[in-house]
Task: structure prediction
Amino acid sequence: MLIDFILLFLFAGVPYYVFFEKTKILGKEKIFLLSAFLVICGMIVSSMFPQERCTLVIVVAFLASWFSLYKAKQTTNLYKLSYYVLFFNAPMLIMFETKESILYGISLLVTLFGIYLMGKYYERSYGSANYRSVSGITLVTPYAGLFLTLYLTTLALYPPFPNSLLFFNAILSTDTNSLWYLSVAVIFFGNFLIAMRVMAKTVFGKPNDNVHYIDLAPKERWLHLAIFALLLVLSAAGLKELLS
Amino acid sequence: MEKLVLFIPFIPILIAFLIGMLNTKILMPKVSLYFSSGVALLALYGTYYVMSNDTEIHGFGGLLVFNELSAILVPYVAILGLVIRKYATKYMWDEPGYKRFFILLNFIFSAIYLLVMSNNLIILTIAWQLMSISLYLLISFNVESTSAIKNGGWTMLIHKLADLLFIIAVVLTYKTFGSFDLTELSQIWLEMSQKGSVDDPRIYAIGFLFLFAAMMKSAIIPFHLWLPYTSEAPTPVSALMHAGVVNVGGILLNKMAFLLLLTPAVLNVAFVMGLITAIFATLLMLAVSDVKRYLGYSTVGQMGYMIMEVGLGAFSLAIYHLMVHGIFKATFFLESGSLIKQARKDPNIPRRLTYELFWEEKPQYNSINMFRLIALFTVVPVIAFVGIKYLLSESGFEFNAAIIILAFAWLTGTQLFLSFFEVTKANSLKVLSILISSFVIILFTYEAVGHALERFLYGEHGKLFYEAATLHVSFAMTILMLISIMVIGWYFTYKQHYVNVPIGEHTPSKTKWRIYKLLAKEGYISDMYVKYFKIF
Result:
């Protein structure tokens, strides 16, 4: 039970909602890195104590994930989006079997790190990680458009990207019950809705005439290409897991 | 050598990567066309191999198969793809994102091939979802258009729901039957069906989940909105959507045909939903004023027929129907550009076959006699055909789904001839003769090709599906319903298109007006979606 609560603390963004949201001790940029670190700690704890998780904890995580979904829907900041999405997926990270949870968690972290880097690019190019008003990037900044499309497609749980394959692998390995169906449906749709909403306002849309668009710098392109390659490796791993 | 055929789903991905690396615009369609021609040839070779050796080609550890279904559908998709690519070469030339378009087009073709050739539920799930995302990116190709993006979002929502149902169905299938392999599963399902009826609610749940997933992707009412509202996509994408993507529901149900043997209730629901869709979409088609939406609803109606055919156990007929309709609708879309161009120059354009047959004065020969001859050479053979069949076999038509063929024949004929033609007192007889002729031709084709396809796809098991479909229709009922449909349908169509009615002399009744309003507002379904599902 104690382990379950520790996992809830690490996965569901409790430190953020309790301390950091109001006190502003940490900037938005740092919160994602801290949250990612906590999730990695959670994965280590989870692998050290593999046991069946308490239903109450899953229910609490599920309710908290609704709140994170609401927050993710409200925000137009890519930094904030990255950690809200991480908290939103907490019920799955707790509910899945240890190995599947770790694989899905890694894949989710890599994807969100890509979005976090896109936030950095937005901040450098447009003054803030806020994507509002910076629409239609597919046409004017094709590299940024391409990588953001890839990350959001991954986040929306579409194959051949790893989140989808590992999510599918994890749900195949878990025992089904009513809470399972509910959580799977909500997380499956929630990730999709968040990603599609951002895609419609960034990748698509009419380019803003008042914005001077700057595409990814060559160094950034290589970095994103490396993340994409990592996602492909995870896809291969996911497919192997699925077919085994 | 024959194993090469199994690489077909991966060739479009290779094409996409090659195009991605090209910087010369003119080379992009060339690469796409050359490699796609190779795919088409490979597909035709595969079909020849399967037909001549009466065997299936298995590969990739049993994950992919080139079986009878693939032998029919893969060449169809490949040739359709070739035509669409050729058309898009010039059509998309001035559009921003030419390279992006060809890359996405190749991805969606890869997903379709993978879906058709998959022999494993995991690969099928991947292909099923891959198609959704490729479709979204193609529908939203015109990234600057707010309505295209919004409608693309709605499309994705319905497709994502279909994906979720599909995934849950796959999970349940695995947990119930312990396998992902479709050949193995089909064998299990066939053996179970031979042992007698099944009462396990989980099997029914799986059947319903697959059916609803198929219905969503095939735009069956009430999940149809994504199709009529996405005509803003580039014309080649519209052609692909109406001729390829929307058919995946029928393909999925054919792959799951042996599962549906165990679940007659699922087949009955498919029949009813298909029937409602066919009627409602056809009515909406007549009421909407937007030409593109008109075509969209026409496709929705045809998908209704396809699902109805599945509901009656005529699985092979559904495959034939989706191919014929696909060719017809793709031609319609691809022809639209040149027609618009011609219409700008000549007010009498579009001058079509129907126009030339009925409208244009042809004093050089007696047209009435010609139509009498057509009627003689079509009505008489069908009477003889029905009579002989009735004498030789108690069941009359071999197809239990005869009524569907007949209704489809009538509706297709009516749509075809009345879409661009207004009936007047003078030529209504001619139209009637041509409608009957079209009906006869379609009836003969369906009877002959449907049977051939059934033997090819399902062999001796073909008859089992009709036994599983509990909605049997007797021969007498078939004929009676045929006559009723013909008479009622013709009467309404005649009244609808009768142009000699003085408009100002009578006012429509309130009931008629309400019905019209309901149809013109497309059943208020789109309004409901916008009002209650404020997501995007």
